[in-house]
Design a protein that fits this description.
This protein is an alpha/beta fold. The protein is about 45% helix and about 10% strand. The strands form 2 sheets. A 6-stranded parallel sheet has the order 4-5-6-7-8-9. A 3-stranded parallel sheet has the order 1-2-3. Helix 1 packs parallel to helix 13, helix 5 packs parallel to helix 6 and helix 6 packs parallel to helix 8. The chain starts with a helix and ends in a 5-residue tail after the last helix. This is Amidohydrolase family protein.
Length: about 300
Amino acid sequence: MMDEIAAVRSIWSDLGLPGLIDVHTHFMPKNVMDKVWQYFDSQGPLIGREWPITYRADEQQRLATLREFGVRRFSSLVYPHKPDMAAWLNQWAREFARNTPDCLSTATFYPEEQAGRYVAEAIDAGTQIFKAHIQVGAYDPNDPLLDEVWGMVEDAAVPVVIHCGSGPAPGEYTGPERVEKLLARHPRLVLIIAHMGMPEYSEFLDLAERFDGVRLDTTMAFTPFSEAMMPFPPADRARLYDLGERILFGSDFPNIPYGYADALRHTVDLPGIDDTWRRNVLHDNAARLFGVASR
């Protein structure tokens, strides 16, 4: 672990950064996290390869690991897979952020009658980032039960990390078409497309070029694990550079099947980028978005 800590810290320190900001990390109630890990443990037959959890440890050890890596801010992305779950997750995440000052205050939602109420409460309580998981939640982001939610989130300009791409396995409502429809109705939404929209990279880059609020996170993209299944198209590499102020580093910690340093290396070693792009993606873009002191 000491070697990995040194490797991670050397990447950001060599760029003159004060650390990293990771917009895509998961902290959840223990019983929920255990079920998530069980899900990944069973994913081998679904994706055609095993998915070991590299950082399977208790909560305090996971927090210590991120801090040792030099992660200045991170998220506790929670998400429901059924009704009557989101409000409880929000209460847990609010308390977690209260006790963990370096964690962005996180919340979520689900298409249900009470969604508008608990999302309003979350915004009033200072939520800094929402998570919407279209694949796991198995819902259309344009469900009428979410109309009020999207309007409130848009007006409050709270970023939403949205897993809407069809990787690692497609869902009934994944893909760019429904997100494009959502943005046509709510063009000021600040959406952070998880996993670069994998595998529909090109289509989600299109949306980032069309809508000023759309960003993408690098979670699992560019790594050998993902490239073997859903490679990023070489023809779009120039667009990565051009959108360098709209791309944010994300890791999926602790649920990644490789080391944290590997995720960083495969991001900073992309062809055609420069140190300004690297600094923006690893830290400065998120610092601007979330109001974190840059130095």
